[in-house]
Amino acid sequence: MSAPARRESDEGGCGVIGIASSVLIPGRHLLQSLRQMRNRGNGKGGGAALAGLSPEQFGVTVELLREDYLLAVAYLDDRARTEVEQRYVEPMFTVDHQAALPMREDLPLDVAPPRVVAYFVRPRPDALARFSSQHNLAGLPQNDLEDELVYQNTYQLNKAFYASLGEKRAFVLSHGKDMLSLKLVGYGDDVIRAYQLEDMHAHVWIGHHRYPTKGRVWHPGGAHPFVGLHEALVHNGDFANYASVTAYLAQRNIVPLFLTDTEVSVLVFDLLHRTYGYPLEYVIEALAPTTERDFDMLPAHKQSIYRMLQEVHIHASPDGPWFFLIAQSAADEQGPRTARLIGITDTSMLRPQVFALQQGALGEPSIGFAASEKQAIDAALESLAAEDHRFWTRPDRVWNARGGSHTDGGAFVFSITRGPEGQADLVCSDKFGRRIEVSESSKPYRRNGRGYSSSLRRPPMEGDAHSLVTELISQAASLTYDEVLSYLDALTSGLHQERGRTAALEALTVLIDGRFPTGELRRSSLLSLFDEALAKVFDSFRNHEGGNLLYLEHGRPLATLQPESKTVILDARGYDPQGEGSLALEIVRLVGLGFRKLVVAHAKGQRFIGSGLGADRAGVHIDIYGSSGDYLASGIDGAEVIVHGSGQDQLAQIMKRGRLIVHGDVGQTFMYAAKGGDAFVLGNAAGRPLINAVGKPHVVINGTCLDYLGESFMAGDVSNGGGFVVLNGIAFDEGGRLAELETPYPGGNLFSLASGGAIFVRDPHGKLGEDQLNGGVFVDLTDQHWGLIRPMLEENERLFGIRVPWLLQVEGRELKPDQIYRAILPSGHKALQPEEAWVANSG
């Protein structure tokens, strides 16, 4: 009996993941990401697409894979195959090779997956001549004519065998060169299992959970991906102007058949890129137009081109929250086709997205990602690193896109170019073609044991954890990886004793959280080594019962209950991401039993960690290691939550009291509707942090945020205990050194429509302008303002090592606070005067 489909249709967003690798990787690594995001699905639609395929797995040659169209037909009715081949395959194409894809029959799916036949085909000369004559296409180049014949033939096949309101017997999954798309009614990971893609290899993979927001969502044809010709698209979100986009396409004689916004999105992409021949930059601009301040910041020649694109194609621009991922197989006249992963976000950034890059040393693999959640990227890298020593578990760079920005366009392209001998390179670039790279001065760790030479002596194998960590940090810029490993061996040499285990955990926490110069050593590689040592420490707690730290994993009962004096190390790996069997509810149970100190180990994207604890939970302390999920610390009332790494989206929503400390970045809508509490973020925030915040939250963000910081901020009167945000606009570079960002705030909606509270921005060079405000006004920083923010900056120094004297310096010159920080109050709010309230000592 098949399992019932899940009915959690209220989940607010699809799960999407894209991977682009310079070496062929198997589908089982995409499977891990999709499994981890399964709670974003609902069992009604899932799919995957591949580009840059391996010819051997299809039994074809490299030349045939490059030259032939891979026509993948889904048969819902096996009896339709003969008719489809007689009407739409044999008269139109020479079939060089065909194969039925293997399929599992034992998956508990409500709707049986369609059987898929892959045909490697070339248009027949007589069919091409007929087609050219019928459609008056005599002047079209040969390749373009073949493309159009394939495209139109698919339309006719789908119209005949998969009418949106009629009988459904077969449809085309994909028909591009060197690419394949598959989908079914179920989850994205079901697709990998159903078609046995675990061992199928490709350079580019995309996957999707959930269903399209319009159309027949319960049928295989209604699931993502949807295809143009040489591209497949999945997306998270929806848009309100589906009718106008459909009308735009109809004016160009393009009629959607599946009645979904996802389908029309890829049809527009294909029209602009293939039919009109627009470069990717112009296609992206037409889909996600640059507006307002960002448009004004563009060079004049781009403004001219973009203005024309918007005038002609504005009705085809999706209006609403969306994030597109596209797998593309693009022609390359020099050799094999270029496989691409393209990520595009809407200009309002209303759907979560994150990009990442891990760049190998010269001649070694590189890999790029785009996804709904960072934890999906973490899962893929962990899976890859476990079986291929050329990868490691941490990305070098992680970032969010700012849709429609003048700096990077809010879109990124990972391109895999392959040479004639099979070698391949990955290049990551933004909308404007500018490359995103990792500094070549640092070298990643090679797991084959070869380190990098150094004249420094090997570290001592004795000494307490504190002294070892202090020495490691001070010498890191001139250490080799072998020497770092020796330090880690020394740190973990006393795990047979509770004191040794506790000291090692504290020491590794300092290394993972810290930012320090690393010389030739890649920080991401070091973090991977620290993670391995930390896992060894956690295992030692698991294997040694007793003491002041209890180890708890799913299904394992607690030992003697003495909650007042015990710390629980909670292994997250066996717990569900949300719901009845979730990690969040286990934490609620433990706090209800009286435990006040919890350490979450091996987090795997679980949501709501720290939420639901109840009122007045002062004294509850939760440390989180691993890849935490959305909604962390939401609603906390007095608890302290520390994230030893980056957070994801919706952190600390409606937070009332307590503290949140994040040793990394945070995602979308950080502290939405927060009412109070203190928060410290070492890195950046994505879009819309602290929107609709009320009460008295006090926040320090050391990096920047994309846009809409403090939108509709309603946090009272800052002179009378109201809330505020300090934005420092700084970052640690790849060498572990602090530096100012190019601008403390890149967006055009700072403090938009705010009615209370204040924002204090470190802006010694006066880079912020009035045009970035929409409801706020710059005022002079007063002694009272400095008295408010200085204690927060001093605590920020204690937490992250960012010294207040450094913040008050510019190019080595010490300046006064009012020369460094600028205050922004709501428009119409009377500027505070020192005599109106207490005056803090400005120091």
Verbal overview:
The chain has 843 residues and is α/β, with parallel strands linked by helices. The protein has 4 domains: 15-430, 4-Layer Sandwich (Glutamine Phosphoribosylpyrophosphate, subunit 1, domain 1); 465-518; 545-639, no CATH class; 645-843. The protein is built from 20 helices and 33 strands. A 12-stranded mixed β-sheet has the order 18-19-20-21-22-23-24-25-26-29-33-30. Helix 1 packs antiparallel against helix 12 (374-387), helix 3 runs antiparallel to helix 5 and helix 15 runs antiparallel to helix 16. The longest helix has 21 residues, at 523-543. It starts with 14 loop residues before the first strand and ends in a 17-residue tail after the last strand. Residues 1-12, 449-457 and 829-843 have low confidence and may be disordered.
Helix content estimate:
25-40%
Shape estimate: globular
What is the fold-level CATH name, i.e. the topology of the largest domain? Glutamine Phosphoribosylpyrophosphate, subunit 1, domain 1
Give me the Rg, rounded. Answer: 28 Å
Main sheet makeup: 12 strands, mixed
Strand order of the largest sheet: 18-19-20-21-22-23-24-25-26-29-33-30
CATH superfamily (homologous) name of the largest domain: Aminohydrolase, N-terminal nucleophile (Ntn) domain
Question: How much β-strand is present in the residues?
Answer: 15-25%
CATH class of the largest domain: Alpha Beta
CATH architecture of the largest domain: 4-Layer Sandwich
Cα end-to-end separation: 73 Å
Number of domains: 4
Number of strands: 33
Q: What's the overall average pLDDT, rounded?
A: 90
